[in-house]
Amino acid sequence: MNKILYASVMVALLTSCASSYNVTGSSSVSALDGSKLYLKTLKSGAVRNIDSCDVVHGEFHFAGLLDSVRMANLFMDDESIMPVVLEEGEITVKIGPAGPSVGGTPLNDSLYKFIDRHNQLINQMNELGHKQNQMILEGIDEQAIAQQLNAEAAHISAAEDELVTKFIEANYDNVLGPGVFMMITSQYRYPILTPQIEYIMSKATKTFKEDPYVKEYYQTARENEQRMNGLSDPVTTSAPAPAPLATDTLQAPAQLMNAPKK
Predict the structure, then answer these.
(1) Helix, strand, coil proportions of the chain in percent (round to 5)?
(2) What interhelical angle do 176-185 and 142-170 show, nearest 10?
(3) Going along the chain, which residue ranges are E strands?
(4) For the chain, how big is the Rg over CA atoms in Å?
(5) Which of 44-58, 208-222, 241-255 has the lowest mean pLDDT?
């Protein structure tokens, strides 16, 4: 009897020491109704399921215990919909035709403020193609068009680099820094060093450098650079496969918008 009581007390104490996450979601995308959603996170180099739920009448809910704050991604089947920071508090997820958003807790608010600004810059870059077509129709000299649009593209690109770099610097010691670092590096076929990455690492704190993904990526990228400088082929082994976090996945996927309602 005493052993049972002791075990019960220990479970209660361990549970009380753990924090919890609570995610309340709503969707106006009819294709999601009846679907199963998953929360997945990167652990030991692999993407793992940590929670799942069904979408019922446009509503869904996740809840559980946390041993630490972590970056996760919301998936429908194998399709990444959006990143979510699992932290203590009431997390609110909204999925609509204009795209998904997360709020209600400090790190999620900060992440989606950054994502919104980043998407604005991406949209500005995409608009340059339409602007080029319009200028051609107006009979503007092609050389003048190229000169103007190249200057605008360089300005937008510089603004994007500054946005990403400053955001990572401001979040070296929480999950947002490594999470966004993962986002910008996942676009490469294999780990490489760029001036932006070198700058980020030169300013980084010990906490950031010791993050498993950051550490593995940077080490492999340096090895690749040494091989390239030695005129040998770079290795194609990459850092641990990241949970998709690129901001082009943060718009509602087209297949969600066009799929028939279940």
Answers:
(1) 50, 25, 25
(2) 150
(3) 19-27, 36-43, 46-54, 59-66, 70-76, 79-86, 89-96, 99-103
(4) 22
(5) 241-255
Q: How far is CA 262 from the centre of its chain?
A: 28
SS3 labels along 88-144: CEEEEEEEECCEEEEECCHHHHHHHHHHHHHHHHHHHHHHHHHHHHHHHHCCCCHHH
The single-letter code of the amino acid at 199 is Y
Query: Please, is 147 exposed, middle or buried when counting C-beta atoms within 10 Å of its C-beta (0-12, 13-18, 19+)?
Result: exposed
Q: How many CB atoms lie within 10 A of CB 44?
A: 7
Residue with tokens 């809910």: 61
Q: What percent of the chain has pLDDT over 70?
A: 81
Mode of pairing for the β-strands spanning 89-96 and 19-27: parallel
Q: Quick: pLDDT tens for 161-177.
A: 999 999 999 999 999 99
Q: Are 40 and 48 in contact (CB under 8 A)?
A: yes
Reported pTM? 0.80
Indicate the average pLDDT of the chain: 84
Enclosing H/E stretch for 30: none
Determine how many CB atoms are found less than 10 A away from the CB of residue 75.
20
pLDDT(47) > 90: no
Average confidence (pLDDT) over 17-44: 86
